[in-house]
Amino acid sequence: xxxxxxxxxxxxxxxxxxxxxxxxxxxxxxYSATIADVSYTQLDYEIIELINNYRIxxxxxxxxxxxxxxxxxxxxxxxxxxxxTPSHDYFYLRSQNxxxxxxxxxxxxxxxxxxxxxxxxxxxxxxxxSHRENIENPExxxxxxxTKQDAEGKNYFTNIFVKL
Length: 164
What we know:
Largest sheet: 4 strands, mixed
Order of helices and strands: HHHEHHEHHEE
Low-confidence stretches: 2-25
Number of strands: 4
């Protein structure tokens, strides 16, 4: 009986700790900033061109730029710069926002930092199985992109792949 009670207490605690409510409650206020306009850098366009050229070489379709996905990428890059490290923190929010605003069916993302040119960045993503899978996803129809530099000049990158 004592083992059963202990087991039930442990399972109950695991259930409580696995809930994502705590993460949602602790979402930084600055993370949810609303971006009014989306603008793209030359580096952003180079990254998209390299990704689309690679997709075409693999028999896949081009990805069209989706401003709503880029808004999410911009917010996330600002967060990463503030944190000083690349991450997929709060991806569920970006995914949920895109599912609600543009009726996205699927959402995935690639993040990186420190690269100074598009070719090096895309090569690194293509050499990583999970990043390459996002790029090669045959169901993806659109892409959002953001490149942001921190105070030291280090680039942060977020690409969001969407199926509409």
